[in-house]
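Q: Here's a chain of 376 amino acids. Please give me its 3D structure as C-alpha cells.
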Amino acid sequence: MKTNYKFTIYILLVFSFYACNNAKSDQAESFPLLWEFEYTQDADGLSLVNTNPAVLNSQILIAPDKQLTLLNTKDGNVKWQFAIPGSPYISTEEFLTEGSTLYLKEDQNQMLFSIDLDNGTSNWEKDISPLEFYQRSNDGIDNDFLYLSGSRGEIYRFTKQGQLTKTYDVTDYGIETSARSIRVLDNQLIFSQRWREGNNSNANGRILSIDKETEDLLWEYRTENGGYIFEPIILEDGIIYAGVTDGPGEFSALDAESGQVIWRNEGLVTWSFTLSDTMIFVNNGIRMVALDKQTGQELWRTSFGGGHDQDNIAYLDGYLYHSHGSGLYVLDANNGEIIHTEPRSPDGSPFGLVAAANGKVFVQSDYHLYAYEAWK
C-alpha cells in the first residue's frame, strides 16, 4: 500500500501543535495568577530593587512606592497604608519586626518609627538628628533593644520605646567603615563589613563579634575574597551564613559562638541567597548555585542565559522562585531544573523581588504586586 507522506506529515504537525499548546496550557494552569495589586503612588526605582516584600502571617508588607502597604495574602485587599513624611524611598532588604510591631529606620530625614502592624498607626516617631543612619544596612534586634547602623561607623542601640542608650564605635576595632548587617546572639553583637585596605582595589570583608555590654572583642573573621556589601548575614541554629558580593568570591559558614570556619566555598560571588533545611541557594548574578548546608559542597548550578541580576530568591516546598532579567523563573530545588518561566509581568514591565508563603508566590513589577499559586 502506498503511503501518503504529505497526509502523514500533516497529521504529525497537527498533533505536535495541539500537544505543544496543551503543554503550555497545563503549564499555565499549574501557575495561575490569583490576584494583583496596583501601587497607589509612583514606584521608586531604589525601593523596587532594595526592599523585599515580607510575608507576616497572613499578610504581606511592601514598600515600592515610598510608603508602606499591608495586604491580605488571600485576596490582595489593603489592610492599611502608612506614608512617611517627605515621601522618601524605603531601603532595606529585611523589615525589622517583632510581634505586631514594625521598627523602621529612615535615613534621608534621620527618623525612626515604631508602627503598629495591626492598624498601621505610629506608636512613636523619633528624629535622631544630628546623628545619621547608614542607608543600605540590615539591622539587629534582641529582647530589649534595636541595633541600627550609623553612617560613620557607629551602631546605635535604642530601646523599643525609641531611647538611645548606647553607641558602639565600630572604628575602634581597626577598620573605618560602617556595619552592613547586624545579628545578636546572647551577649554577642555580630556584624559584617566591607573595606578597602591600602592600595588594594579589591574590597575585603570582615565579620566581627563584640560583647554587647563591655564591647570586648570576642572573635573576628576576615577574608580577602571580597566584601560583605548588600546581602544580610543569616544567623540560624548557632551558625552564621554569609557571602561576599565582589572580589574572587566566597560563601562561608561560621560557628557563631567562636567564629571558627565550619566550611568555606571559594570563588562564589553572592548577590542574594536563601536557605532550606538542607541547602543554600545563591544568586551570583548570572546563575543560581546550590550548596550543601552541612559541607558547603556545590550540588548544582543553573544559568539563566546571561545578564546580571541581583534579585532575591524565594523558597517554598521544594521549589525556588527568582526573577532574572524581565522573567520570573520556577526551579526544582533538588536539581536546579527550570520548570517554568513567566517571560514578563502582565503589565509588561520586568518582574522583580519575590516572596513565597501560604501556598502563594508574590512578585513585584514596576507597577503591581502579583500573587500566583505556588508551583505543585
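Q: Can you summarize the key feature?
A: The CA atoms of residues 291 and 298 lie 4 Å apart.
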